[in-house]
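Fold this sequence, please.
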Amino acid sequence: MKVFFYALFFHLTLNVYVFWRGWQTLAPKKALRAAYASVFMLEFAVYLVGLLLQRYLPDGAIRIIG
């Protein structure tokens, strides 16, 4: 369980940093920023599903997620 929290913390930290630096480079147009934020939210959701359900998902799905 400890490894799960370390992986989640590392992923969150790195993901927030990359998101913030990319957000700063984008022009302040709402449509582009909304799409950018949506991509990061989708990526995080897929990461969590893969991390939580890795025992139950088929190997092909884990390879795509991981």
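The mean pLDDT is 85. The helical segments are 2-25, 30-52, 59-65.
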